[in-house]
Design goal:
globular, alpha/beta, 12 strands, 9 helices, six-stranded mixed beta sheet, three-stranded mixed beta sheet, BirA Bifunctional Protein, domain 2
Length: 272
């Protein structure tokens, strides 16, 4: 008898503030029971535009705080590692599941490739020649090199289109739970984001791309529909669209109040 794959929850929260986005992601992760919960694909956006720090970064060490304050750009901290990202004009996703719900993934590295495979298919379905960095770069010596600005680095399974990095993805593992989120840039705002960094090497924003630059029509509804269909096909699962549960909503409110509205966490990584 063939086991029927567990249906996935699809939650499209639309554009939210940076703090609210991070609170929702963490609330969904905290509420997830690997033995009983359905895996989740969440889609969202950012309004207003915001900067997110990697889990271990300190704002004052990597950002031009005077410029950030002058422009009033919000700063939030992700629960995943990596460098600074400027979130604007993008479609963002997060995935929460157990390793058992990724049958082809035998290791953390495998799970990252498995969970980015739908993005590769998504970009290709839009007509782009998308490849993993490890499969397309002749010089792989700098793969995995740490950078303060997310789009300056190249990870093994970063996705490149015509040699330029498109979007970014990060993963965190808890006991029996996989959390991953990433960005799909509709318009390339890397240069804007670089303007808020202490280190503003122009090359950091070069070799980045977006759907608009690749001549892809950037209607969000169409992109969400395509992404949902590709995800369903890639993993051979049914998508059940719905909202956060009452428990998840309550935890989101608590996290907003106690964590993501708190500068100690967002700027320094210190919880109350």
């Amino acid at each position: 008898m063939t086991n029927t794959p567990t249906p996935w929850r699809l939650i499209d929260t639309g554009p939210l503030s940076g703090a609210m986005n991070m609170a929702v992601d963490e609330a969904l992760l905290r509420s997830f029971d690997p033995a009983a919960s359905r895996p989740i694909l969440r889609l969202y956006g950012w309004e207003p535009a915001a900067l997110s720090l990697g889990r271990f970064q300190k704002a004052a060490e990597v950002l031009d705080m005077e410029r950030c304050l002058m422009d009033g750009v919000p700063i939030v901290r992700r629960i995943t590692g990596g460098g600074v990202i400027y979130h604007a004009d993008e479609l963002t996703y997060s995935v929460i599941c157990s390793p058992a719900q990724l049958p082809l993934a035998s290791s953390i590295k495998d799970s990252f490739r498995e969970l980015t495979s739908f993005l590769l298919s998504f970009y290709r379905r839009l007509g782009l020649q998308a490849e993993y960095a490890v499969d397309t770069l002749s010089d792989r010596s700098r793969l995995g090199e740490k950078t303060d600005f997310c789009f300056a680095g190249r990870e093994t399974f970063d996705i490149l289109v015509n040699g330029s990095k498109i979007g970014g993805n990060a993963q965190r593992r808890l006991k029996e739970v996989v959390f991953q989120h990433g960005s799909i840039p509709i318009v390339n705002r890397a240069a804007v984001g670089l303007g808020y960094m202490r280190n503003q090497l122009a090359e950091y924003a070069e070799a980045t791309s977006s759907l608009t630059e690749c001549d892809v029509a950037a209607d969000r509804d169409r992109l969400c529909c395509e992404l949902k269909n590709v995800f369903s096909h890639t993993f051979s699962v049914e998508m059940l669209e719905g909202d956060c549960t009452a428990e998840e909503q309550a935890d989101t409110v608590r996290l907003m109040r106690d964590k993501y509205s708190y500068d100690g966490w967002n700027l320094q990584g210190v919880e109350q």
